[in-house]
């Protein structure tokens, strides 16, 4: 399936299907005199014999997040220059969101910008590959150096998902689910029917298509994240705090964060629009481990909550909340309010799940 972006100019295609890499890559690489492949080394090891057998002289990056360092950025740039990269070359990034973020930032900056393509190999990267954000980390924080830079296309070959560990699969699915909540109750119900009791890899393409289209809807309105794009952070305020404090996979933490945001939304709306217990039971049934957040003291999360990038006022914490499915707003809550809801939210989880 092909999805196209809907910007005023510089649009690109996003392909999502089995065998997409072999089907579409050469159509793009043929337009360039030289092509450089930046590949997650773990993904290369798993797929070099079949899916990546035609990839010529890849530059292997350390797997996952460990490639998003200033050192790895500089080292890879040196290697590309040594190999003779030119302004009219193409960079192809093959790996998850981390590979895409590093390669995208290299493409945006090397020789003041060369074209690039992302071949996402994780479910989570349906999110990161779309929207044009690129970034690397520094010791004081994640994604603090980066740019907005659009790829020439995104080729999501769903055959890569067959080697994804269950935890990574669930982590990526969390963002698909988030996109459904930003749409409608029907989309959330559809996901729960398609992926009932377990994530069904064979039926992920259509769910990912919904996720990508939703993300594009927000990004098209607000590419540089001053308004609507912030809503894509649903579940990410408490989520990030739990991710860092409890060392959780990103998406697992976002699932807990989403439950909390829905719970707080119900409290502030003064009616139970969202059946939080139902979603909690569903997340647990597809593998979310609630014991990982048991007994987490609010005080341990607070330092992370106060550092959330969305915050604009001292001692207030910004949350993306929903007045209904698909109807988002950003609300600043006091520490006392966040703590009060955190306590009653935990009591509800213990009682119901
Ligand atoms: N740019 C954006 O808009 C944006 C949005 C969301 C997330 N991100 C970034 O994305 C990154 C997370 O991405 P991710 O979750 O895709 O993880 P990742 O790239 O860190 O990969 C996670 C792990 O999965 C492995 N892996 C990748 N593909 C595999 C496959 N097919 N089979 C087996 N193993 C495989 C990797 O080697 C790594 O160990 C973070 O750095 C985050 O900041 C960026
Ligand atoms: Zn996320």
UniProtKB/TrEMBL annotation:
Pathway in which the depicted protein is active: Metabolic intermediate biosynthesis; chorismate biosynthesis; chorismate from D-erythrose 4-phosphate and phosphoenolpyruvate: step 2/7
**Family, similarity comment:** Belongs to the sugar phosphate cyclases superfamily. Dehydroquinate synthase family.
* Subcellular localization(s) per the UniProt record: Cytoplasm
One Pfam family named in its UniProt record: DHQ_synthase
Keyword Transmembrane: yes or no? no
Q: Which cofactor does it need?
A: Co(2+); NAD(+)
Q: What class of enzyme is it?
A: lyase
Ranges for domain 3-dehydroquinate synthase C-terminal come to 172-311
State the name under which the record lists this protein: 3-dehydroquinate synthase
Source species, domain of life? Bacteria
Q: What would be the name of the gene that encodes this protein?
A: aroB
Q: Which reaction(s) are listed as its catalytic activity?
A: 7-phospho-2-dehydro-3-deoxy-D-arabino-heptonate = 3-dehydroquinate + phosphate
Q: What InterPro entries has UniProt attached to this entry?
A: Dehydroquinate_synthase, DHQ_synth_AroB, DHQ_synth_fam, DHQS/DOIS_N, DHQS_C
Q: Which GO terms describe its molecular function?
A: 3-dehydroquinate synthase activity; metal ion binding; nucleotide binding
User: Lineage of the source organism?
Assistant: Bacteria, Bacillati, Bacillota, Bacilli, Bacillales
Q: Does the keyword Lyase apply?
A: yes
Q: Which Gene3D superfamilies match?
A: 3.40.50.1970, Dehydroquinate synthase-like - alpha domain (1.20.1090.10)
């Amino acid at each position: 399936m092909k999805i196209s972006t809907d910007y005023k100019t510089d649009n690109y295609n996003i392909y999502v299907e089995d065998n997409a890499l072999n089907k579409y890559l050469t159509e793009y690489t043929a337009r360039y005199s030289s092509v450089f492949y930046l590949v997650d080394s773990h993904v290369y090891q798993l797929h070099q014999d079949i899916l990546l057998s035609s990839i010529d002289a890849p530059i292997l990056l350390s797997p996952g997040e460990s490639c998003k360092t200033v050192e790895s950025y500089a080292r890879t740039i040196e290697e590309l220059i040594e190999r003779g990269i030119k302004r009219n070359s193409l960079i192809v990034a093959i790996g998850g969101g981390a590979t895409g973020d590093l390669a995208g930032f290299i493409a945006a900056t090397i020789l003041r910008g060369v074209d690039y393509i992302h071949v996402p190999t994780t479910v989570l990267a349906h999110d990161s590959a779309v929207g044009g954000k690129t970034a690397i980390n520094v010791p004081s924080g994640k994604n603090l150096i980066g740019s907005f830079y659009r790829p020439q296309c995104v080729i999501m070959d769903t055959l890569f998902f067959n080697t994804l560990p269950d935890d990574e699969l669930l982590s990526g699915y969390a963002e698909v689910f988030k996109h459904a909540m930003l749409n409608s109750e029907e989309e959330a119900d559809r996901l729960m029917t398609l992926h009932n009791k377990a994530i069904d890899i064979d039926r992920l393409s259509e769910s990912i298509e919904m996720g990508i289209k939703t993300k594009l809807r927000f990004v098209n309105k607000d590419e540089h994240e001053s308004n609507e794009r912030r809503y894509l952070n649903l579940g990410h305020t408490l989520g990030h705090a739990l991710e860092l404090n409890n060392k959780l996979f990103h998406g697992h933490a976002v699932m807990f964060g989403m439950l909390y945001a829905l719970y707080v939304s119900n409290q502030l709306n003064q009616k139970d629009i969202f059946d939080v217990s139902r979603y909690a039971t569903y997340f647990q049934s597809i593998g979310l481990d609630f014991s990982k957040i048991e007994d987490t003291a609010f005080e341990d999360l607070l330092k992370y909550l106060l550092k959330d990038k969305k915050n604009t006022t001292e001692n207030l914490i910004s949350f993306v909340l929903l007045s209904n499915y698909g109807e988002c707003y950003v609300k600043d809550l006091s520490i006392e309010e966040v703590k009060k809801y955190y306590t009653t939210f935990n009591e509800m989880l213990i009682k119901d799940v």
